[in-house]
Each structure stands twice: as structure tokens, then as C-alpha cells.
Amino acid sequence: MSDQKRLFLVDAYALIFRGYYAFIKNPRINSKGEDTSAIMGFMNSLLDVIKRERPDHLGVCFDKGGSADRVEMFEAYKANRDETPEGIKTAIPHIHNILKAMHIPIMVKEGYEADDVIGTLSRQAEKEGYKTYMVTPDKDFAQLVTDNIFMYRPVFGGGYETWGIPEVQKKFEVTDPLQVIDFLGMMGDSSDNIPGLPGVGEKTAKKFIAQFGSMEGLLANTDQLKGKMKEKVEANGELGLLSKKLATIMLDVPVTFDAKDFELDHPNIEAVKQIFQDLEFRRLTENFLKTFAGNGETAPTETSVAPAETKTTPKPTSSAGAGQFSLFGNEEEDTAEVVSEYTRKTSETAPHFYQYINTPSSKRLFIKSLLQQPSVCFDTETTGLNPLTAELVGIAFSWETGKGFYLPFPEDKNESQNLIEDLRPFFENENIEKIGQNLKYDIKVLAKYNIDVKGKLFDTMLAHYLINPDMRHNMDVLAETYLNYTPISITELIGKKGKNQLSMREVDLEKQTEYAVEDADITLQLKEHFQNELGEANTQKLFDDIEIPLLRVLAAMEIEGINLDKKFLNSLSEDLNNDITNLEKKIYDAAGEEFNIASPKQLGVILFEKLKLVDKPKKTKTGQYATSEDILSYLAKEHEIIQNILDFRGLSKLKSTYVDALPKQVEESTGRVHTDYMQTVAATGRLSSNNPNLQNIPIRTERGRQVRKAFVPRNEDYTLLAADYSQIELRIIAALSKEKTMIEAFKNGEDIHASTASKVFNIPINEVSREQRSNAKTVNFGIIYGVSAFGLSNQTNLSRSESKELIDTYYATYPQLRNYISEQVDFARDNGYVQTVLGRRRYLKDINSRNAVVRGAAERNAVNAPIQGSAADIIKIAMINIYNKLNEGDFKTKMLLQVHDELVFDVYKPELETIKTLVKTEMENAYKLEVPLDVDLDIGDNWLEAH
DNA sequence: TGCAATGCATA
DNA sequence: GTATGCATTGCAA
Question: In this structure, is the CB of residue A190 within 7 Å of any atom belonging to strand C?
Fold first, then answer.
């Protein structure tokens, strides 16, 4: 290091925010309830810098009142910043006091940001021969870097890096640090609300800088750009220049650098100690004393100080007197055996008392108390996500906000089973309400331990799904939205998934307790919140009568799984492989060389450069040749190779998505495929299926439908039964719209598409041509989706005007249908939502949008959601009723799958006739409409035959 | 390694 | 035109 004098200018807020958020998961709270995270974080950084660098000149700069100039230029500047957190606001006066006691100058200038103050001072200091180090993590400062001005950046995980000109050149790919301004102006900065150029991100900005040197250079040479980018940049030149101005740090703040103001003086040790003591900083006090020992003239030998106090282990506030927080009420026995107690505060919530239970007597007390509760929230912790293989690690319980218990489970199977037996009286008690988040999971886990969860259920995930189906429903989101509370993240506990992820069992008991009971506690609080809202949205019945009972039905279906003929799929895979290889050969022959057909890049070169199939081939936005399905189909007549390529793609898809993927999904422990039904993802009320998705097994093409042959009954004594609603959505729209003509057609059992064609084209039903029926069918479906003439002409061989005419005659034929559609849209406009026959709502916030495209989409939703959703409601009712009948009758037959309008059963052959009647009756009578519901039944030795 | 975009399977 | 899930690709981290 040279003898040149060195000035360190600290960007206070940047370090304060950084320090504050470093502790966000475990805020430092002292006994007075003050959140000292920000102070702690900032002081750690400051002492760290002093200790490492021993600066002779030092100042700390604060913002004050924001940047008046920038706001004047651009109203939205920094407008989307969240309110400064309370923990930071309260920290500022303390930090000021500490700095004063340390005799460190505080630089503030009303109406200017710290950036500007630091920029101005550093330039002045440079003239006086100083080297300036700007202490900040903020990349914006890179624009200030010169031969004598550096950034001194804290890096993640501790330590610092110094950025001089070479580092800035490398990081930003610029030749001059001043170009950082152009760079920031182009890509924008969402945290400061600097707009930047639309469509330009980091990569493009770097490219532009390399190509044009500056924002002005870019704007002057837009002729060198192409496509969308050219349009966007040209249209937003003004915005670009403004963004550049906003990103520019000012160098003319009215401040004067006077070296003696910044000399690092001896701190008033006693005063600092006193402040630290008041704040209850112990390690920091030691750190401070060490840093300034001997007036700082004998520099400590250590080269780095680990960011102190970042360990996450919570400290029990006391080890004695555990009984004082006991939830056991007036039990006479001691509760000292409740070993752990942990108190956690956040700024928003009251203290939490979470206890784990691992002694016989505390367990006895706990269970006694548990059984006296009318309503309990619980949450199971397991070794994995698959409930069929996961083992219990513990169960958390809570029945009072902020309090709860955790019962850890031993690894040994027998011991674990013994422990769960102690809880059987609770879980199987009909009179205790069980509350949980995604109870289907817990019920499935407990089922593996032969526990049948009985009594009333309240699932917060399902409740929220009904309250707001368009949102997501995971607990973290719900807690943040409704309770203003951030739960401990699972990642924090067990690590990122992959290499070093722990199992829940490997986590310390205290942390398990903290995490698990917090979940139960929060879920309980969410329940309080949601149960009122359900009433307000009028969805209480839907919750009690449909979604909650369905949860048990789905759990049973998922546990049951379906038998899969792996051998069959393997042979199918070989067949496909042969065909694919043959196609490959043909393609290579035609191409004259071997290449990767799956790579669009290589394929493009072959088709358009080598074979020159087209004069001027289309390119994608990335500059590749376009080889998508529609383009290739269009070219199919040009060359035989094209059809082969299309076939190759189709077969590869079939093979990878179904034929090869399904056998891998067979659960080893059961030998069956267990899909997971998601009850809360489809905004309309439908279920969805995943891991694997059994709701999209091919059926349309001959080749694809072969996959269905692999779904087979459990053994020779069983057969598969598929029961599907015929035209349920059209029946629903006919009934809801009270369209007499269509209702009559259904009542008479007519072929509805032929019937529609006959009326629309005004010909007898038996003279309807194939094409006419097909067009009528397309319109019938189109109505359900909210047709447009444009969409229709895309689907049929009709022109746009023919399509329009067809739609017009269609509406003339079914006038009530048209009325119904406009009524739905009106209802949505007035109420902001539409609803199904059972009152399931879908909110349509865009229904009054001024943007016609956005509004149009909402209008189509207004038509479709009640139809699709009512069909979903109806089949859900049927499922619940059938499930109950199967249980009551002690049938061996099981319901296995649901595919929106179809149910699949594994039928015990002797029960076949009874089951056929039962299923058909329950499905057809699940809900009374003015139109009869009709169910087709088919049986077979596999899912294809049963169709 | 994780993400969005694309393409395609179903109702 | 509605509603989903998943495999692959290509790009960003």
C-alpha cells in the first residue's frame, strides 16, 4: 500500500439494509423488545472495515429526504420501494449516537442521496491527492471509479473486494467506468424504479455498450438493430435518456471536503460501551474494544472477523421455570419435564411458546390435555414428500395461538408405531375437530400407520382455494398475506434440495420443534381468519359438503393407485424405438448425412441450407431457422423428409412422455402408479393430476392410445370400468341458459351435434353431412370456450366471414344461449366474479379492463368458468357419494381415477352388475338439472378396452 | 442448476 | 376461444 492518504466513505443505508436483512430470518431482539438487527449488522461492517484497513480518514454518509432533483425528473423514481422497515427506522438514531461517540463524521445533505454526497466528496478528495474507498455493496457506484477512487464492496459470506478500473471494465464489459451509467440506463433498475429500455436486460445492455458505446450512440444508430428490438428502442429513446439521467450520480452537491473533518479520531470508549450495553450487545462490545485497543496503533493480527452473531441457533430465554408457560392449565404435576421451551418474537407477533415432549410423564400430560380439546391443529413432519414411503419424524399440535407442542417420533418402526398408538384416541375421536394445511398429505401419512383420521376437518389450503382460487395456497404465502408473518423456510432448516439436503430427522430437535409447531400455530391462526371469510363468500356449504369430504376420497384413490403393465410398455417402447430408428435412417438418407434430428439448429441447417426446401426460410427471433410443427406441416408436400421428421417427433414425444416415463413412476412398495390429485390448483374447480399426470394419457391417435392398454385391473378377479358423462358441459350450458330447443334435444336423446347442425343448416337431422356435423360440433365447443369468428375459422375450413355467419345463425337458433352468455358477462362486470351451480366463485379482475384483449379474455372466462366449474362440482359430488356407498357396502371394488368427466374403477368381477348400477345412478343423479345427465359405462381388461 | 418458452397430451 | 402437466430446449446464474 502506498503512503498516499486514504479516505473511506461509507454508504450508511446500504450497509444498514444489508445488515438488517442478514438477520431477517432471526431478528436480533433485546429484552426491551427492540429489533437491533440493523444496528448490529451495520456496526459489524463498520468495525470490520476499520480493523482491516485502518483508514486514517473516514466518514459515514446518509440520505436525507430523497433526491429532489430525480423525483422532479421522474415522479416514479424509487416510488415502488417498500416503506422502510420499522427495525431500520428505529435503528437510525442509535447509529447516529454511536457514530458521534466514536467521533466519526456523519455526512447528510437534505435533498441528496448518499451516492451524490459520496460522489462529490470523492472527486474533491481526489484533487487533494487522496485515494478514496467507497464502502458500499451498491453497483451503481461503479460509475465513480477512477485511478484514485475505488469501490470497497462487502461480499457475500464475509470479506471485501476492491473494484478499480480494471474490475469495473471486466464486470460491466465497458472500457470506461462512466459507461456504467449508460449500462444502468439501458437495463434499468427495478429497485430504484429506473425504467430503462423495455426489453433490454443485462445481456443486451452489455451488447449495446460494446457495439455503440453509449445510450446516445445506441439511439443514433438504431438502423443497425432489427425486428422488435429496433421498434422498442426507437419508440423509447426519451425514456432511455431519462433513465440515464436518473442513473447518474451527481458530483456537484454543495459540500466541501475538508480533510481534518475526516481524520479518524479516538472514540469515546466509555460512551460507546454504555450505548452497546443499553442495546445489550456483548460480542460487539468485545469486538469494539479489541478494534480500538491501544488507540488502534497496534493493529490486531487477525485478518478477518467472521460476521459476528450470525448464528441462527435461538437461545432459550430461560432454562428454569419451564412451567410458567405450561399449557396444561391447572395440572398439579410438575411440568419441568417438558424439556425445551423456546421463545420467538417477531416485530409483528407476540412471543411464541413451543415445547417438545420427550418424557413419559410429559407425554401423558400432553395427551390428557389434547383429548380435552374440541379442536386441534396438527402437522406431521416426515422424512420425505412421498406419503407412501415417508416416515413420521414428529407431529406438531397447537390449539391456542402462539403456543404448541411437538412430539418427536423415533426412527425405530415398532417404537414409532407404539407412539402413534398413544395418539389413536385423538386422531380417531369423532368429536375433536382436526385442523391442518393440506390434510390430504397428513391423512395419507397416518394411513400408513393404520390411523384413520376421524371427526370434522378444516383444511386451510382448501378454505383459501374457495376464497381466492386464483391465488396460490402454500402456507408461506398465506402466512405472509393474512398474518403478516414470515415462517421459517424449509430450506433454512434442511438446505437446498440436491446434494447436501438433510432429512427432517437429521435436524436438531429444537429446530424441528420451532419449525413444526410454528406451522401448526400459523395454520391455526389462518383457520380463524378463513372460517369467517368462507361465510362471507357464501362458500361454506361448498367447503363442508364438497371439498372437505372429497379430500378423504382423493386420499383413498391416491393410496390405492392403479396397476400398470410394465412389460407391455417395455415392448411398446421397443416397437417405437424400431420405428424411430427406421425414420432416422430414412431422414439421414434423404439428408445425405447423419445429424441430430431433435436439434432444431441442426435440422434447420439440413432443411434450408443443404436441401434448400424453401427460397427464403423463416427465422426465429434468435436467428435460427424456424422448424416448428406448423411450418413443417406446411412444407410436408415439398419433400418426403418432412413427414418423416414430423413422425419422428411425434413418436419421440410419445416414447419419452408416456411409454418410458410411466414405468419409472411405479411405486416400488406397492407395484402400482399413484398419481397425486391437486385439489387447489385449477381456478375453475377442476382437479389436476401429477406425478404422473394420468389425466392426459393419449386417446386420439391410434398409436398413442395403445398406452392405455398398459392400465390394467389388479388381477384376474377384477375388471376395469370406465364411466363418463356424455356431453356434460353442453348439458350444463343448455340447462343454465334454459335454451328450450337444446334442452329438448338432450331430453330426446338426440346426437346433439347432428341436432345442432340440422337446426343451423335447416335440414332434416338424418341428412346432416359429416362436415356439417363437424362444424356444428366445433361451434358447440366454441360456445363453451367463448367463441370468436376468428377462432372458429382457425378451427374449421370455413373462412372468417363464413364463420361469422355460422355463429350468427347459431345464436339465432339458440337465442337463450346468447342471452345467457351476455348475462354472465354482465354479472361479472357488476359483481367482479362468476359462479358455478354450487356457488364456487371465480373472480375476474380484468372484466372491466380498458384493454380489449385483456377484457376479452376475462369475458371468455366469465362464460367458461361456470360451465367447466359446474361440471367439476357435479363429478365431485358423484365421487363422494360413490365413495361412501362403496365403503358402506363393503365392496371390494375401488375408485381409481378421475379424468374431469370420467371415473375409472377397479371392479371386483362378482360385484360388476351392482357396481354398474350404483355408479351410473350416482353419477346421473349427483345434481338435478333441467337436462338429464347421461353416463356411458364400459368395461374391459385394460383402460383402452373400457372405452 | 434452475428458469422460461415451446410444443403437445387430455377434458 | 377454456382448463391443466410435462419433456425438451436454450439461456441465465
Answer: no
Helices marked H in A502-625: 509-536, 540-541, 548-560, 566-591, 600-604
Tell whether A639 is covered by a domain. yes
Grid coordinates belonging to A566: 410394465
Range of the domain at A866: 737-870
Residues 662-701 of A with CB under 7 A from strand B: 695-701
* Shared-domain flag, residues A269 and A131: yes
Cβ of A627 near strand C (under 7 Å)? The reply is no
Query: Residue A802 is part of a domain; what is its CATH number?
Result: 1.10.150.20
Predicted confidence (pLDDT) at residue A410 exceeds the cutoff of 50: yes
- Any domain includes A554: no
Tell me which residue of A446, A714, A673 sits closest to A558, measured CA to CA: A673
Q: CA of A611 and C1' of C10: distance in angstroms?
A: 25
Question: In 3-state terms, what secondary structure has residue A544?
Answer: helix
Q: Are residues A396 and A528 in the same domain?
A: yes
- Positions 482-501 of A with beta carbon below 7 A from strand B are 496-498
A649 in contact with nucleic chain B (CB within 7 A): yes
Protein A403 CA to nucleic acid C13 C1', in Å? 41
Q: Which of A263-272, A315-324, A500-509, A805-814 has the lowest mean pLDDT?
A: A315-324
pTM of the predicted model, to two decimals?
A: 0.68
Same domain, A665 and A790: no
Mean of pLDDT values over A146-168? 87
Q: Name the percent of chain A lying above pLDDT 70.
A: 90
User: Which nucleotide lies at the shortest CA–C1' distance from A662?
Assistant: C6
Domain-terminating residue out of A831, A851, A870: A870
- Which residues sit opposite A16 in a β-bridge? none
| Domain annotation covers residue A542 | no
Answer whether any strand C atom is within 7 A of the Cβ of A857: yes
Domain count, chain A: 4
CA A600 to C1' B5 (Å) is 14
Residues A258 and A126 in one domain: yes
Q: What is the mean pLDDT of chain A?
A: 87
More confident residue, A187 or A909: A909
Residue A542 CA, nucleotide C2 C1', distance (Å): 22
pLDDT beyond 70 at A342: no
| Cis, bond preceding A177 (omega within 30 deg of 0) | no
Residues A376 and A515 in one domain: yes
Residue A227's pLDDT band (cuts 50, 70, 90): low
A510 in the same domain as A373? yes
Residue A471 sits in the same domain as residue A587: no
Q: Which of residues 785-824 of A touch strand B (CB under 7 A)?
A: none
Query: Which of A157-166, A170-179, A462-471, A542-551: highest mean pLDDT?
Result: A542-551
Report how far apart the first and last C-alpha atoms of chain A are (Å, whole number). 83
Nucleotide nearest to A693 (CA to C1'): C5
Closest CA to A149 of A172, A130, A170: A130
**Residue A813: its H or E element:** helix A800-813
